[in-house]
């Protein structure tokens, strides 16, 4: 698996570069030798200017650092943990062993928490983040405009070929030229269509200040609200707790103009939004974000999710009293034995990093099948890591959290509390 990923990520940038070269430069070769309508000077300029903008934006989207939590900020957060509580609870990343700022996610490929992570893009082999989003969206913009322009030029030549189809063949283009034109036309049309959809999606993200991951979180929240409505406003959480699920507004949508300004790096200069050499957002930014006032100050994002909050610590068995219990039937005794065995197995695991929850629907089906007098264990834990649990929940487009490139193990089951050691340190510092 690892070597597969390695090969794909190694090939992505050369493959995209080859595609850009084929469309931008082989098309010029074709136009120059297409006698019926050779390339005009202004067309030549336009193609090359678009190509240059595409190259600059693409390479910046690939190679600009998507951001990392500086050690300095880490220390600052440790000294002033209240900084991070502006939007509610503090989040902790198990992999980085550091505070996870609001809107940051742990990328599986970059192997660290990325500020305002949108998704890890396989075509740029880089994260689309607070720092790379402006470059990424400019790349999409110039690619769509440039390839749209190329499409009009190709269309013009194709219609000339079509209208002269009854002329003797020695007057028209050669077979090689016809194949070249067809290839350019098909590849350009398909690519511009796919990138147009991606551009619209990214523009939507920009206008509403909602990353792709956050759109997923919004859908997940809506699903939880629907589930809780059926179950009386509450959902079961581990340890027999019940969590009240209430519709929450997305906090980072702060108005169209501010959303665009913040998304494009904080500048109010509209020209800089389009300028391929515009500065990457300041590295001091990206750790705290302005929020709207739709919700009470104490409410946090993402909203509470009973399937993502940590399991309570398991109490150790007391003096083996369970072993002395008497059972009414042999079957019951065997089941009790199996349960103890499974619990021992859970406890004995070297680092019970993630404890997956069963899928919501399976869990409820299971509860319905039980007899009434039996104890219902809310949010049962999985013993078998090979099975898929609630982390495989998908949004309307069929995407689960890992499809955005995040480390799903620490992201889905990420509602970690701050480790005890850090809390003690904070308390000591506060004295
Ligand atoms: Zn992390
Ligand atoms: Zn990444």
Describe this structure in words.
With 431 residues, the chain is mostly helical. Among the domains are: 2-63 and 131-208, no CATH class; 321-391, no CATH class. It is built from twelve helices and eight strands. A hairpin with a 4-residue loop joins β1 and β2 (98-100). α4 (133-163) runs antiparallel to α5. Mean pLDDT is 81; it is low at 78-88, 314-324, 347-352 and 372-379. It binds zinc ion (2 copies). One zinc ion is lined by residues 107, 109-110, 114, 120, 127, 405.
Summarize the structure.
This protein is mainly alpha-helical.
Average pLDDT taken over every residue: 81
Q: How does the overall form come out from the CA principal axes?
A: elongated
The neighbouring-strand order within the major sheet is 1-2
Instruction: Report the β-strand fraction as a percent range.
Output: 5-15%
Sequence of secondary-structure elements: HHHEEEEEEHHHEEHHHHHH
* Distance from first to last alpha carbon: 50 Å
Pick out the low-confidence regions.
78-88, 314-324, 347-352, 372-379
Protein name: Palmitoyltransferase PFA4
Main location: endoplasmic reticulum
Function: Mediates the reversible addition of palmitate to target proteins, thereby regulating their membrane association and biological function.
Catalytic activity: L-cysteinyl-[protein] + hexadecanoyl-CoA = S-hexadecanoyl-L-cysteinyl-[protein] + CoA
Main attributes of the structure:
mainly alpha; 12 helices; 8 strands; binds zinc ion; protein-cysteine S-palmitoyltransferase activity
